[in-house]
Design brief:
This protein is of the alpha/beta class. The protein has 4 domains: about 60 residues, ADC-like domains (N-terminal domain of TfIIb, Single Sheet), CATH 2.20.25; about 220 residues, Rossmann fold (3-Layer(aba) Sandwich), CATH 3.40.50; about 190 residues, Dimethylsulfoxide Reductase, domain 2 (3-Layer(aba) Sandwich), CATH 3.40.228; about 130 residues, Beta Barrel (Barwin-like endoglucanases). It has 28 helices and 27 strands. The strands form 7 sheets. Strands 5-4-17-16-15-6-7 form a 7-stranded mixed beta sheet, covered by helices on one side. Helix 3 crosses helix 21 and helix 9 packs parallel to helix 14. The chain is globular and about 70 Å long. It starts with 18 loop residues before the first strand and ends with a strand. The N terminus is likely disordered.
Length: about 700
């Protein structure tokens, strides 16, 4: 790799003529694993796991190992680019950072004066530890519109758990639970928020029993004591059935329920509506197997639950979070060592403090798209994707005219890709900050080259809730790239808010670290900062709720004007809810299964990673394949009422009969610009961004639909 690096890609930080190893934190996914970065003559030669880091203990996935390939990829954007010709024409010219910043600042200033600050929306994709800077910019500029995937990923859990117990409970794998419930995720290969796969694997190897809830047979399912292969989209019914069985059989922790909770009788009354026979009919699971899972979780203590994004991308998003919290509390596994723990944050500023949430005037906050309709999303200060598209295309309730995108390949990752494409083409002004020229970036007016994590100073894992932050160090500089944080700070200054931002990133990070008493340079030496680790804090100070107890009927949810007790809604497009449509589209489409070498739409241009999974594979059961004349390894067309795509078939007994399991975010960087084949195998060509939505969070059913399949 050193021989392939250009002069432009040489380090401007420390181009020594010797070899050195730098401790840092990976950001190839949400995992924040500790790494050792090997540098020779100013060039990164390899990245390996840091055995001294307590999070991943030296392990590192294929994405982290491939970081040098990403860093020095020949197609990386290294300079600001300005569109020439029509939008999506693929014609670009290189410009300076000064021209880029001045052009963007002038356009935003003009739109704010003519149409109000709310006419500008900021978009955040995957959380790459810059959210506090992005929200700081939005709050200072005066726009309430920050569109993130949080409404279908993570924030329903955060806000609902804050309401019931005052924080987000995290599976305490480090303390080796006796049992873990892996619900709709594969944390050993994805390292989602708060988790590193190494911790789960260590606990499993120490003898932890496993309950896996997943329509697909995964590696974890192969090691499970109980695998619940439920019908996609019926997770809430399953959870309600488990609550019913635990309560009716008195398997709950009586001491915890009587002394540290309120609302138990109301929950018990709701749970009585969900006997196992009813739940079995809905979920396609044997009633006895549901009972076995509930009993194993309730009796093998301590036990932890590890939920996945599939629970958030549903009309039942808030109910799913309520159910999981109630399972933890009923069994006495909440804030217990080896259970789900409410970790104390490290001594850094909160996101709200650094983001200056108090700077946004109440009248501006009231204009958040969907804010009045979706109280959970509103509490997370989230504009949902469908409401943003409505604003752009229909002017409802006002027209969004400019969008600034950070970390999102929206054409691939948002529901209803065709509508996203139409909306982005309708914008007056679109800015995309990116590593590569993605299909979404191809629609922009200006594209800004963003730094990788190897080119960024940062306090890593700042927004997560596992109670730890670690150092991320800028090691090299390729071309003229800047971090998202630097871009947002400089743009804020160009708009006249120098007093609200910082002279340098070092100053900004020192401010973030103020409660710790450390400067950024001192933190680099320390490297890792945990919060105070204490269990069962409720025994002395209660929970951070209005009642100071765990609330089975959360007062904060009641105050939102929503049902505070969980319930189950059938997926809006299923054999049950749409029997007539099912005659035309007879199969269930389960979208978004994860592949360990890709993070959403990323890394498909990285040779070592793409070689491991060169093309999208749609999984079907052998009986489904035979019925529809599908051959293993052959191409097939998958159709929904919204559109069609093509994928290669993988015939496997690991999926349910009548189900098609398809990965998400597939595009082909090697194909001709500006299209890059984004329509060909993009599963979001088949999804919908319309109602019904989760009444609390605005979540849309992106993971469970109806489809039909035929040979290509």
């Amino acid at each position: 790799m050193a021989e392939a690096a250009t002069i432009e890609q040489r380090s401007e930080v420390e181009a020594t003529q010797s070899e050195r190893v730098v401790k840092s934190t990976c950001r190839g996914c949400h995992g924040a694993c500790g790494v050792l970065v090997h540098v020779r003559d100013g060039v990164v030669t390899k990245v390996v796991g840091d055995p001294d880091n307590p999070m991943n203990r030296g392990s590192l996935c294929s994405i982290g190992l491939a970081a040098p390939e990403l860093l020095y990829h020949q197609d990386r954007l290294l300079h600001p680019m300005k569109r020439r010709g029509a939008r999506g024409s693929g014609q670009w010219e290189r410009i300076s950072w000064d021209e880029a910043f001045d052009t963007i600042a002038a356009k935003l200033q003009g739109l704010r004066q003519a149409h109000g600050a709310e006419s500008v929306c900021l978009v955040q994709g995957t959380g790459r530890d810059y959210a506090e800077f992005l929200y700081r910019f939005a709050n200072v500029f005066g726009t309430p519109s920050v569109a993130t995937p949080g409404y279908i990923c993570y924030f329903p859990r955060v806000v609902v758990h804050n309401a019931v117990c005052g924080g987000l409970p995290i599976a305490n794998y480090e303390a080796h639970p006796k049992c873990a419930v892996i619900w709709g995720c594969n944390p050993h290969i994805t390292s989602p928020e708060e988790y590193q796969g190494a911790q789960l694997v260590d606990a499993l190897n120490a003898g932890m029993k496993l309950i896996v809830i997943d329509p697909r047979f995964t590696t974890l399912a192969s090691r499970a004591t109980i695998w619940l292969q439920l019908r996609p989209g019926t997770d809430t019914a399953l959870a309600l059935g488990m609550l019913h069985h635990i309560i009716s059989n008195k398997l709950y922790d009586r001491d915890f329920v009587e002394n540290y909770t309120i609302g138990f009788e109301q929950l018990a009354e709701r749970a009585r509506l969900w006997p196992l026979e009813r739940v079995a009919e809905i979920t396609w699971l044997p009633a006895r197997k549901i009972a076995d899972a509930a009993e194993l979780y309730a009796r093998e203590k301590p036990a932890a639950i590890n939920p996945g994004q599939v629970l958030d991308g549903s009309v039942n998003a808030a109910s799913n979070a309520l159910c999981l919290g109630h399972l933890m509390a009923l069994t006495g596994n909440l804030d217990r060592q080896g259970g789900n723990v409410l970790f104390s944050p490290p001594k850094v500023k909160t996101l709200s403090q650094f983001a200056l949430h108090g700077e946004l005037p109440p009248e501006a906050n009231a204009k958040r798209l969907g804010g009045a309709e979706f109280p959970v999303a509103n509490q997370g200060m989230i504009t949902t994707h469908p409401k943003l598209l409505d604003s752009i295309l229909d002017g409802t309730p006002y027209r969004t005219r400019a969008v600034l995108v950070h970390g999102s390949n929206a054409l691939l990752s948002w529901p209803d890709s065709q509508r996203v494409y139409k909306a982005f083409n309708a914008l007056e002004f679109l800015v995309v900050t990116e590593l590569f020229m993605t299909p979404t970036a191809e629609l922009a007016d200006i594209v800004l080259p963003v730094a990788t994590w190897l080119e960024t100073d940062d306090v890593a894992a700042y927004w997560t809730r596992h109670g730890k932050v670690s150092v991320r160090q800028k090691i090299v500089q390729c071309g003229e790239v800047k971090s998202d944080q630097e871009i947002l700070m400089e743009l804020g200054k160009r708009l006249g808010y120098a007093d609200k931002f910082f002279p340098t990133m070092e100053d900004a990070l020192t401010d973030l670290l103020t409660p710790s008493g450390l400067t950024w340079r001192q933190f680099k030496e320390v490297g890792f900062l945990p919060g105070e680790l204490r269990y069962e804090k409720y025994r002395t100070r209660g929970f951070s709720t209005p009642s100071r107890k765990y609330e089975f009927v959360p007062e904060k949810i009641s105050a939102m004007g929503r049902d505070p007790l969980p319930t189950y809604l059938e997926p809006p497009e299923s054999p049950v809810s749409k029997p007539e449509l099912c005659k035309v589209y007879p199969l269930i489409l389960s979208t978004g299964y994860r592949q360990p070498m890709f993070f959403h739409s990323e890394s498909r241009q990285i040779p070592s990673l793409r070689a491991k999974w060169p093309e999208p594979l749609a999984e079907v059961h052998p009986e489904t394949a035979a019925r529809y004349n599908l051959k293993d390894g052959a191409m097939a067309v998958i159709e929904s009422p919204r559109g069609s795509i093509s994928m290669k078939v993988k015939v496997t007994p690991g999926v349910l009969r009548g189900v098609v399991a398809a990965p998400h975010c597939w595009w082909f960087p090697e194909k001709t610009s500006p299209d890059h084949g984004w329509r060909e195998a993009n599963v979001n060509m088949l999804t919908d961004s319309g109602p019904p939505y989760d009444a609390y969070a605005g979540s849309v059913s992106i993971r469970t639909l109806l489809c039909r399949v035929r040979p290509a």
